[in-house]
């Protein structure tokens, strides 16, 4: 499923590389090696220490990932 791997210094740089290529459907960045793996498909999620994975933002337009809003947005004061 990986079609390319390259060196990047951050997970954000890896995602940027993925977003720049129409073929890229997902990426995984391995912190210990600074390796960025670009994928032509979206594999099942699997926990991995020191690995950051994701999909290009173009696939998440109009998408909500519920669950963390209370951590991101302050609660409105009760009236």
Identify the strand order in the major beta sheet. Answer: 1-3-2-4
Low-confidence stretches: none
Structural class: alpha+beta
Terminus-to-terminus distance: 53 Å
Biggest sheet architecture: 4 strands, antiparallel
Radius of gyration from the alpha-carbon trace, in angstroms: 15 Å
Tally of separate helices: 2
Q: What's the helix-strand series? A: EHEEEH
- Helical residues, percent: 10-25%
Mean pLDDT: 85
Total strand segments:
4
Walk me through what this model shows.
It is built from 2 helices and 4 strands, in the order E-H-E-E-E-H. It has 79 residues and is an alpha+beta fold. The chain has a 4-stranded antiparallel beta sheet, covered by helices on one side. Strand 2 and strand 3 (35-39) form a beta hairpin. The chain starts with a strand and ends in a 7-residue tail after the last helix. It has helices at 11-19, 69-72; strands at 2-7, 26-30, 35-39, 51-54.
Short description:
The protein has helices at residues 11-19, 69-72, and strands at 2-7, 26-30, 35-39, 51-54. The chain is built from two helices and four strands.
Question: What labels describe this entry?
Answer:
25% strand; alpha+beta; 79 residues; 4-stranded antiparallel beta sheet
What's the layout of helices and strands?
Blueprint: E1 2-7, H1 11-19, E2 26-30, E3 35-39, E4 51-54, H2 69-72
Antiparallel strand pairs: 1-3, 2-3, 2-4
């Amino acid at each position: 499923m990986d079609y390319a791997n390259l060196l990047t210094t951050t997970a954000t740089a890896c995602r940027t590389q993925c977003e720049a290529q129409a073929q890229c459907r997902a990426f995984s960045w391995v912190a210990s090696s600074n390796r960025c793996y670009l994928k032509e498909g979206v594999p099942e999620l699997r926990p991995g220490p020191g690995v950051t994975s994701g999909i290009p933002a173009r696939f998440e337009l109009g998408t909500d990932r519920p669950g963390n809003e209370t951590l991101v947005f302050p609660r409105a004061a009760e009236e």
